[in-house]
Specification:
By secondary structure, this protein is an all-alpha fold. It has 2 domains: 2-51; 88-317, MetI-like (MetI-like fold), CATH 1.10.3720.10. It is built from 14 helices and 2 strands; from the N terminus they run H-H-E-E-H-H-H-H-H-H-H-H-H-H-H-H. It has helices at 2-38, 42-62, 81-84, 90-121, 128-140, 143-153, 161-168, 176-179, 181-206, 210-218, 223-250, 255-261, 270-277, 285-317; strands at residues 65-66, 76-77. Strands 1-2 form a two-stranded antiparallel sheet. Helix 11 runs antiparallel to helix 14 and helix 13 runs antiparallel to helix 14.
Amino acid sequence: MSAVTVDQLNDGGRQSAEDQARAAELKRLERRDGWRRRIPILPALIYTILVTQIPFLFTLFYSLTDWRIDTPDPRQFIWFENYGSLSGDTFFLDSAWVSVQMTVMAVLGSLIVGTGLAILLDRKFFGQGFVRTLLITPFLVMPVVAGLMWKLQMFNSTFGIIGWVMNQLGLEPVEFATRFPLASVVVVLIWQWSPFMMLIVLAGLQGQDQSVLEAARVDGATSWGTFRQITLPQLRPFLELGTLLGAIYLIQVYDHIEVIVGGQPGARNLPFYIAGRSIGGGNRFGLSSAYSIVVVLASIIIANIGLRVLSNLLEDDS
């Protein structure tokens, strides 16, 4: 009886060792297969690192120096003094607050408008392709062209469409770009970025399981109830993606501010202020580099806050 037991134990030990060897070989094959799949994208990955991370490291290096081109003094290391001056720079703090307002309002506004347009396009009707192309067009317009178009053809109190409508209603036309600089820039950003959000949300809508929607309609669910209980939770990753990409790009807006409002204090965000401190005449490249690092960190923070807020809203609805 004991011999049988010992043989069984030996067989079990050999089988366990074979299983472990087989598992190790399987992991090795999976790793090799994974690297084989990554090889085609390595050139693109290396190129991305070269054109993004190396300039970022140089910017980080310059932010620790007192680099000016309007004085003959050599560049000196001052370590974190540029970062320490942020708290006392009221213009920087004002620009940071403008950046937060502009980014949040533009992202949320374009997300709401884009979602509404996507819902309207998520159905069959005559000329659907043509209408979709027209709605995508604003996103393809260059920022400078979009700014000039809105400034001259919409916001201008003498020749603009908004001024003409107000005149027809018996109201006094208003120079919107001068009186409401921040709102003017946000309106143009929403107009230009809504098609981008629309495409992302439309992709989510067209990926829905139609049988689930049909079952909800058969059970007597209303259109709003179906959207809130079924469609909206499924759109969550697409809405989060739109919020993330929008926050990253819109916090870097410069062209619209320069063209529409000319950098008025009420609409001067961080990129515009940083450009003014460096190539705009300030010549404080070390200080501007430190400010740029802060903008990168602010982009990450704002994007994460936007994602967290959106996730909480979607969780409450579901």
